[in-house]
What we know:
Elements: H1 14-44, H2 66-80, H3 85-100, H4 107-111, H5 114-126, H6 132-137, H7 144-157, H8 162-184, H9 189-247, H10 292-300, H11 325-343, E1 355-357, E2 366-368, H12 418-427, H13 463-469, H14 504-520, E3 525-532, E4 536-543, H15 549-553, H16 556-562, E5 569-572, E6 579-584, H17 593-597, H18 600-603, E7 610-616, E8 621-625, E9 632-635, H19 642-654, E10 662-667, H20 691-715, H21 720-733, E11 737-745, E12 752-759, E13 766-771, H22 774-795, E14 801-807, H23 817-822, E15 825-828, H24 834-841, E16 854-858, E17 864-868, H25 874-885, H26 895-898, H27 902-912, H28 925-937, H29 942-949, H30 953-965
Parallel strand pairs: 9-14, 9-15, 10-13, 13-14
Antiparallel strand pairs: 1-2, 3-4, 4-6, 5-6, 7-8, 7-17, 11-12, 15-16, 16-17
Amino acid sequence: MAYQTRGRDPLLDSNMAEAIEKRGKELLGLVLMAVALMAAAMVVSYTPDDPSWMSATDAPVQNWMGRLGASVAAPLFMIIGWGSWGFAIVLGVWGARMALHRGEDRAMGRLIFAPIWLAILALYAASLTPGAEWAQTHSFGLGGLFGDTVLGALLGILPVGASVGLKLLSLVLGVGVLGMGAFVLGFTRVELQRMGRFLLVGVILCYAALMKAMGRGAGGAAQAGQAMQAMMAERRARRGEAAVARAAVPLRAEPALDGARVRRADPVPLTAQRHAPVAPKPAQPVDKPGGLLARMPMLMRKPEVMPEPELVEAATYEGEAEMPGDDRIRAKISDVIKARVRQSPAEQIASVAPLTKGRGRGPDPLILNTAPRGVLPPEPPLTARHVVQTPLRAEPLLRAAAAPVSMAAPMLEVTEDDDFDAMIEAFGQDDAPEMAAPAPRIPMPEPRKVVQHAPRKPLQPSSRAMAEAQPALRFEAPAQPVYELPPLSLLADPEHIQRHHLSDESLEENARMLENVLDDYGVKGEIVSVRPGPVVTMYELEPAPGLKASRVIGLADDIARSMSALSARVSTVPGRSVIGIELPNDNREMVGFREILSSRAYGDGNQKLPLALGKDIGGDPIVANLAKMPHLLIAGTTGSGKSVAINTMILSLLYKLTPEECRLIMIDPKMLELSVYDGIPHLLSPVVTDPKKAVVALKWVVAEMEDRYRKMSKMGVRNIDGYNGRVEEALKKGEMFSRTVQTGFDDDTGEPVFETEEFAPEKMPYIVVIVDEMADLMMVAGKEIEACIQRLAQMARASGIHLIMATQRPSVDVITGTIKANFPTRISFQVTSKIDSRTILGEMGAEQLLGMGDMLYMAGGGKITRCHGPFVSDEEVEEVVNHLKAYGPPTYVGSVLQGPDEDKAESIDAVLGLSSGSGAEGDDLLYDQAVAIVIKDRKCSTSYIQRKLAIGYNKAARLVEQMEDEGVVSSSNHVGKREVLVPEPQ
Length: 986
């Protein structure tokens, strides 16, 4: 048996359900429109300076939607740029459709394609050129990162050029934005037709309103013009009668022409058969309106070309029959020239005086304002091709003439009152005015030259170089060999160096190309100067206001790629508002070492310890003073020219200072670079190649520094120069230095006994310590090396001890913070990464160097200068070394490598903060500190002692073993703990 189920009655009837659905859609539409307004406000008030997820600042929020709006707008603009407007448009249109019930049934089928439309909108925005404000504050285009990435991929696929491809894509994307937007926003064909009809009607109405407004203005102008012309016609009629009366007087015969002075024939009255005199008649008001619109066709009409007269007897002036034959021929030639001048079109030429707008009555209102009123301009020569001249017609006096007068009318500047009278009087003068002298032509302003060659005069030779060029004859040989500085002839002659110079045209072309490259990346500016040098050429960029220098500096790799250069270095120019862009030359010029040593900057300078660094980018020599640095830190990769630069620095000292003035200590762990100098008289010890011996040598230098300070304190001087000055004065006077020395204690009283000791004064030479590879020393004895270097760098300046340290691994474990703080002067050659450049210099740029001696020299004040180091070959170094070895073996100091005695070594370790670590008797300070810590804290372990004393693990383990041997702590149990056996102090 089947049962029938009774259907449940609906809760609401169909009408109520339909009404609720409509009200729900309306409410949803209102919500969507509100969200659209919030999105539009968020987008329109977007500012990249607002705090958001991408940037954290303390500045107040400028977005209208507060911090939430700034946090949402920043990533939206970064991803799709101005495509963010698509969200507000989609939400607003569909909200209106929901609220008005217009096509809401098409929502799901159309909104699926909304992301595609947003992507196309971002691509179209990316194809547009961003404005200056956007380019200054953003590192991406108008389409965001997505638009820039996809657009770049599309441009790479297209087989056409980038410029043409960009325009083509912009056109296609624009059509796609409109088409896809109409589909996504739910527009049908009927709605689009209706919108087009309304748009067309609106354009027609606007055009009609504009034409109506213009008609009213033109009618008023026409009435005002007619009234003005009627008033002026009456005035011209009165003046015309007087002019004709004066013109009725016959002309006198013109005197003969000569080669030095030319007179112009008077143009009126005429008795020619072709041109009959015109009777004056009162001027009538002009029928045509006098407004600007009515005169536009006359102003735009091209002047008629007048026929060129021939040299025939066609017309004669009164009195012309009385002229001689030659004069008549000259007068006819003058007529031809004048006709040709009238025939040439009036065009503006930049090489003549500027045109001014006058109120003449001729067809062309533009006249020349180059001569005083009433004076005729000079007659143009036969070869004149472009002359600016406007024929001036007497109106209405000559209005009824059938053809213009063949005589060139004078060019006068006409005004309302006086100038028209001056023109009429010019027609009636009895004697023709003499031709004025040719007016001086105003020269065209030459374009500013961007290429600025530095005043690179030939380097002036020093007095030593000139003396060596003309050696003096020696008639008597010295009794004993006297030390002589090495001659410059041992070095290569700089005259054989090939010079390469680019033409100004090439540099100008490169400057314009660089401007285009920068413009492609959104950097607005102008190349204001180009400074070519021997190795690189610096282009000075004047950036647009508001452009950050860091943005241009970050484009160094892109600029090098676009300019097809090996590298490009971008940096600010100290003291100026420009940004320097340094690009390498195609042909690099080698910097000769002899050229630097022969210059006055080195030879005649007053540097105590001169270092010939090379030439700057302008080609001028750079000579630094090591005594003022006072220490130098050098970094650079293998092959960057670091070793050659060290050789040039050593030779700079050897060419200027004698062994009595400067002594050297060379440390070369690689055993290759500095071993060639072994045996020269300037050395205090043989070249040190063992890292362990290097520590001993540095400790000896520390002890020598302490000893020198004690001597200077007793003499009451502040530095080595003051001490040597006192010694020199004492040697001149033959005096002896005395000092008080303690010799023992009194047996009876126990007081110390002092005696006065005299000793001969002796100058203290400068000591320069040169370390070729610091990384190898830091790996062997890093703590001791760092302690010695820190002590010397802090205190050795006044004692005349200076350090030159080089490394090919400028990492933070080699160049520690302590070393950087005490080496204010640094030189960086080419490095591998930006991190290494920041480690050595504190900023980027060293990774963009060219290598082979190209360096960045940072002086003590932080100013960085690009310098090109000189080249010196191994053969030149060997010749100089052989010359120095000829004066005998060096005088070595044995304690440099052997080390001081035990008492002095302990005092040096105490000064450096080092300890020997062998305190078996308990007299070691470090051991006492460890015991005190263990007794106080009642626990002992190797890691605990290491952490408390900040020492190494091995050292802490030895201290724990020593405490165990002395019964301070017990041995470790099964879990590794030790008991403290010493009772706790009460």
